[in-house]
Automatic annotation (TrEMBL):
<feature type="compositionally biased region" description="Low complexity">
    <location>
        <begin position="22"/>
        <end position="37"/>
    </location>
</feature>
<dbReference type="Pfam" id="PF08757">
    <property type="entry name" value="CotH"/>
</dbReference>
<dbReference type="InterPro" id="IPR014867">
    <property type="entry name" value="Spore_coat_CotH_CotH2/3/7"/>
</dbReference>
<keyword id="KW-0946">Virion</keyword>
<feature type="region of interest" description="Disordered">
    <location>
        <begin position="22"/>
        <end position="44"/>
    </location>
</feature>
<feature type="domain" description="GH29D-like beta-sandwich">
    <location>
        <begin position="58"/>
        <end position="150"/>
    </location>
</feature>
<keyword id="KW-0167">Capsid protein</keyword>
<dbReference type="InterPro" id="IPR059177">
    <property type="entry name" value="GH29D-like_dom"/>
</dbReference>
<dbReference type="Pfam" id="PF13290">
    <property type="entry name" value="CHB_HEX_C_1"/>
</dbReference>
<protein>
    <submittedName>
        <fullName>Spore coat protein CotH</fullName>
    </submittedName>
</protein>
Length: 677
């Protein structure tokens, strides 16, 4: 055996021995009355009448070494436990005395030792990364039957507030072979890669993100069981659950830190995670917060993985009030089998269950199309898209009757806003290029909800290859409206590219007006400078130290000190985009005189204003934006505690000053005020 393997075995043994038996039991240890059991031994010997093991300590963070006592009610039971994340079996160590739990930072980093996890750059991570003690235990009878597994994660000596602030910690426990085994490991190059190289010697020279590996495989056969603990900043455990875990993403699967999808299934126990994983994540129908998740993603940042990791969460948060679907998120810190695995952005996961949980729609009636292929639904559902595509692209959309029929197939406002969003952020890998687009609809329209009408609607995701990511933010002056209209850049070869739908619809004056207003609203409201500044400062303050520590753990070398530079580049893009974007609209559409529009309310506590389709924040200042005299805007009263009385306006005319919704014809710089009583 070579010396490296000898060292690995020795240091791994030290790691296990760091959780040691101790003859001096701590008197008066408080027993944990909560079993929080999960993770059955998959050997057909489960006996649910056998009591679960009770722990004297809850999962969480402790300042000093701890003594952990295990106990189980019943005669003739033997407690067996593991410290490596695997499920205990009859060969696991027998618990006889209290376990001493210590700060494991300087223990050998077993998982970090694996180097066969990417076809790309080499990186040697530090071995002294944060670690916790993972203990999994079950009570066994003499005949081999056993009770359910109970698991805990005990962190010792980590200053939780200093290191992670208010960010939740997710502890994942699983058989390490499910990650790193040559044949079945989902995190490694593995056998799939070797077989792929053997097929054709030319494969070795392929771009790294195009190389096949275990970690590029998809489908349920590449899902593995995992146990998850979600530990809040106040030390409480929000939920624990057995789930399935897969590798997630496209090219970013080749990164050292890979994105992970976690799914609840009946096979593992509960069919949903019933917890508000993402704070203040309002349902798409506005009826409260999302309270359950079928699946969620621990996202590494995609294209932004080694840059700033903040692009997608920041950009999508700016348009979360739009009618197209957006993925909401929250930062978390992840440990796998007790070993620090960096910070991730926990995000929603699009699926038929996502639609069901956001709209109370039968998930069996949901169709989702992803980059030209049916993702949710039946194979024949592709005809629903093809029929729409062919009608819109093969008929004259300037004809009012044809456009009316198109409006029955596609939610035009959603589509218009979605296109404006991708254009504004200069998305280089989006619907404009034929990639990273989704749309959904109900198969059979029943109008049970506002979106059960059978119209296609857009779903935003994976926006990282945008906003100047590879230019330091210096491409903010690039006119993406021209790119979208001219179709000069295509990455994905599709038979029916949806960008052609957009180009056909621009022949219709009503859609063109809607789209120009969508572009104006994107700049004036969604990405209004003070709103962007506040959101940017908030996310940087949370992500900065977390991302830096993640870069130290996963590399590459150039990323270690790159967070500030990359975050600054994003801010430069957003600042510059705000300054020049109206000139792009003017250059392409020549929509008449550009003027300033101010919107006020007589008392923001009594009510606000919806401009076109977006509610304005008038809580501490008036709204000011730029629009064109050629295109009227719409204002709608948005009462709070008061009653709408009328509109007052100067420099423009109101279609009906007493109507809660009115059309505003702009004549020059104008001011509109909503009066409440």
């Amino acid at each position: 055996m070579d010396i490296r393997k000898n060292i690995a075995l020795l240091t791994a043994l030290v790691c296990v021995l760091s959780v040691s038996s101790c003859s001096n039991k701590k008197p008066g240890s408080k027993k944990n009355s909560s079993s929080r059991s999960a993770g059955t031994v998959d050997d057909g010997m489960l006996d649910e009448s056998v009591s679960s093991v009770e722990f004297s300590l809850e999962s969480g963070f402790y300042d000093t070494d701890q003594q952990l006592e295990l106990s189980a009610q019943g005669e003739g039971l033997t407690i067996r436990y593991t410290t490596d994340g695997s499920i205990p079996n009859e060969s696991s160590p027998e618990y006889t005395e209290a376990l001493t739990l210590t700060d494991r930072k300087n223990d050998f980093s077993t998982l970090a030792e694996h180097k066969d996890i990417t076809a790309s750059h080499d990186y040697s991570p530090p071995m002294t990364v944060d670690k916790g003690n993972v203990i999994r235990a079950a009570a066994f009878k003499s005949d081999g039957t056993h009770g359910k597994v109970t698991s805990r994660t005990i962190f010792v000596g980590i200053d939780r507030v200093k290191k992670y602030g208010d960010v939740p910690v997710i502890s994942l426990m699983m058989d390490q072979a499910d990650l790193f085994d040559y044949e079945r490991g989902i995190y490694v190059l593995g056998k799939v890669h070797d077989d792929w190289l053997a097929e054709d010697p030319k494969n070795a020279s392929a771009d790294v993100w195009k190389q096949e590996a275990n970690f590029t495989q998809r489908g349920k056969e590449w899902e593995r069981p995992v146990y998850a603990e979600y530990i809040l900043s106040d030390g409480t455990t929000a939920f624990t659950q057995d789930l399935g875990i897969r590798i997630m993403g496209a090219a970013s699967r080749n990164e050292h830190q890979k994105s992970l999808r976690l799914s609840a299934r009946k096979d593992y126990g509960a069919k949903n995670v019933k917890y508000e994983l993402i704070p203040d994540n309002t349902r798409s129908d506005g009826q409260g917060n999302v309270e359950k998740y079928k699946s969620f993603v621990l996202r590494n940042g995609g294209n932004d993985c080694n840059f700033a990791k903040i692009r997608d969460p920041l950009l999508q948060s700016m348009v979360s009030d739009k009618t197209f679907e957006t993925i909401q998120s929250t930062p978390v810190v992840v440990f796998i089998d007790g070993e620090y695995w960096g910070m991730y952005t926990l995000t929603e996961d699009y699926s038929d269950n996502y639609i069901s949980n956001n709209y109370e729609i039968d998930n069996n009636n949901v169709v989702i199309l992803k980059v030209g292929e049916i993702e949710e639904g039946n194979d024949e559902d592709i005809k629903l898209y093809s029929n729409m595509y062919e009608f819109i692209t093969e008929n004259d959309m300037s004809d009012a009757d044809n456009y009316a029929k198109a409006c029955d197939m596609l939610d035009m406002q959603t589509f218009s806003d979605y296109m404006a969003f991708n254009i504004y952020i200069a998305n280089e890998d989006s619907i404009i290029q034929g990639n990273n687009w989704r749309m959904w609809r109900v198969r059979d329209a029943d109008n049970a909800t506002a979106v059960s009408d059978g119209k296609w609607r857009m779903m935003a995701y994976d926006t990282d290859y945008s906003s100047g990511i590879y230019t330091g933010g210096q491409n903010y002056d690039e006119n993406f409206i021209k790119k979208a209209i001219n179709g000069t850049q295509t990455f994905k070869d599709l038979d029916q590219p949806p960008a052609e739908i957009f180009r056909a619809l621009l022949d219709n004056d009503d859609f063109k007006q809607m789209f120009i207003l969508s572009l104006c609203d994107m700049r004036n409201i969604s990405f209004e400078k003070s709103k962007v500044d506040a959101a940017y400062n908030d996310i940087v303050s949370v992500y900065s130290s977390l991302v830096k520590d993640t870069f130290k753990r996963f590399g590459p070398d150039y990323a270690k000190d790159g967070f500030e530079w990359n975050a600054d580049g994003l801010k430069q893009f957003l600042d510059g985009r705000n300054k020049v974007f109206m000139t792009h609209i003017t250059d392409v559409f020549k929509p008449g005189e550009k003027v300033s529009v101010t919107v006020k309310t007589s008392d923001s506590s009594k009510g606000g204003v919806i401009l076109n389709t977006t509610a304005l924040d008038l809580s501490d200042k008036d709204f000011s934006g730029e629009y064109y005299t050629a295109y009227p805007i719409t204002v709608t009263a948005d009462p709070a505690s008061g009653k709408f009385v009328k509109w007052e306006a100067t420099g423009c005319s109101i279609s009906d000053a007493n109507s809660p919704t009115a059309t505003v014809t702009i004549k020059g710089d104008c001011e509109i005020k909503a009066i409440y009583e």
